[in-house]
């Protein structure tokens, strides 16, 4: 199952890889991390989500991007995979802190280009809106990077409909990456997912199976257990199939630190839930 990335004409497999667990606290060995990326590509995956701040702290910035670059180079897949990265956060002492200042965004983008060893980033996402910096200033900085050829397409993350609308007055926007899963359906209810569809913007749900620790809740939800048993699949595949069913513009990016997880998630595209099952999952309350 291929899906268009925004209105770029670029096509990617509907399930991407969220590479964050390979580089943050509790990360696997380098050998296992490389094996996860290799398994993703071997399974037909061609869209990887990363960020300069997927790392331990400010001294480790770019860890995830370097890892992805190394893995793709080693398996000779650099040209087959779109690596989407982000700028707009810092990691002082391991915290996540917004910094949407134009100077920081430029420096971050330059460093990401070096870490990924490319001349142009296909999709560069503003990681979060910095409440201390006018969104227009952050976006103007990214638009300049695009004009200079360092970025091909712009995306947003952690934004509201109003912020997307503001951004669209300044530049085409290709993707929006917000938190969305069976236990957090805010963007299904507030119209944001539908808005993206009307604008031909890819909606990239992050933490699509519940998050770094929250994914363990999937195994405890009886309805998921029933559907998983019916289709002889994992509850993870059911959760991802539900997301894919929200529209043809949805590109979930499940995280993985194990080869088995990535192999399982990629197969979610094979599962089609019927309307009644989708509605029953819609009714599961947020946690
Ligand atoms: N834009 C933002 O602000 C933002 C914030 C958070 C995340 N993200 C992005 O979204 C991606 C995904 O979010 P996330 O990593 O927080 O949470 P997630 O994808 O909901 O959950 C990740 C965890 O779920 C487990 N998992 C996933 N699929 C599985 C399967 N098929 N079978 C068994 N276990 C499975 C993995 O376990 P194992 O580790 O055991 O493999 C993984 O560590 C991140 O990697 C990152 O790229 C973006």
Helix content estimate: 25-40%
Shape: globular
H/I helix tally: 11
Strand order of the largest sheet: 3-4-5-8-9-10-11
Our Rg estimate from Cα atoms comes to 18 Å
Poorly predicted residue ranges:
none
Proportion of strand residues: 15-25%
CATH superfamily: NADP-dependent oxidoreductase domain
Q: Which structural class matches the secondary elements?
A: alpha/beta
Overall description:
By secondary structure, the protein is of the alpha/beta class. It has one domain (2-214, 246-269): NADP-dependent oxidoreductase domain (TIM Barrel). It is 38% helix and 15% strand. The chain is built from 11 helices and 11 strands. The chain has helices spanning 30-42, 63-74, 102-116, 135-147, 161-168, 186-189, 192-198, 222-231, 235-244, 259-266, 275-282, and strands spanning 2-4, 11-13, 17-18, 47-49, 82-87, 89-90, 97-98, 121-126, 151-157, 175-179, 202-206. The strands form 3 sheets. It has a 7-stranded parallel sheet with strand order 3-4-5-8-9-10-11. It has a two-stranded antiparallel sheet with strand order 1-2. Strands 6-7 form a two-stranded antiparallel ribbon. The radius of gyration is 18 Å and the shape is globular.
């Amino acid at each position: 199952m291929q899906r268009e990335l925004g209105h770029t004409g670029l096509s990617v497999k509907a399930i991407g890889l969220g590479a964050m667990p390979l580089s943050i606290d509790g990360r696997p060995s380098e050998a296992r991390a490389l094996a996860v990326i290799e398994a993703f590509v071997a399974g037909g995956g061609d869209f990887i989500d990363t960020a300069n701040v997927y790392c331990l702290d400010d001294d480790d910035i770019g860890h995830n991007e370097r890892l992805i670059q190394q893995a793709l180079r080693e398996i000779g897949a650099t040209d087959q995979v779109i690596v989407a990265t982000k700028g707009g956060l810092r990691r002082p002492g391991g915290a996540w802190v917004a910094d949407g200042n134009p100077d920081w965004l430029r420096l971050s983008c330059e460093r990401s280009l070096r870490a990924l060893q490319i001349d142009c980033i296909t999709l560069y996402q503003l990681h979060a809106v910095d409440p201390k910096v006018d969104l227009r200033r952050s976006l103007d900085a990214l638009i300049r990077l695009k004009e200079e050829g360092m970025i091909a397409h712009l995306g947003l993350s952690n934004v509201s409909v109003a912020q997307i609308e503001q951004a669209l007055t300044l530049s085409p926007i290709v993707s929006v990456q917000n938190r969305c899963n069976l236990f957090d359906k805010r963007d299904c209810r507030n119209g944001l997912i539908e808005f993206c569809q009307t604008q031909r913007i890819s909606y990239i749900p992050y933490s699509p199976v519940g998050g770094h620790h929250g994914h363990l809740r999937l195994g405890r939800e009886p309805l998921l257990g029933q559907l998983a048993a019916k289709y002889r699949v994992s509850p993870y595949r059911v959760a991802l199939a539900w997301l894919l069913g929200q529209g043809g513009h949805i590109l979930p990016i499940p995280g993985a630190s194990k080869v088995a997880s990535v192999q399982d998630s990629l197969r979610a595209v094979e599962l089609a839930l019927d309307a009644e099952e989708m509605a029953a999952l819609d009714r599961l309350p947020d946690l």
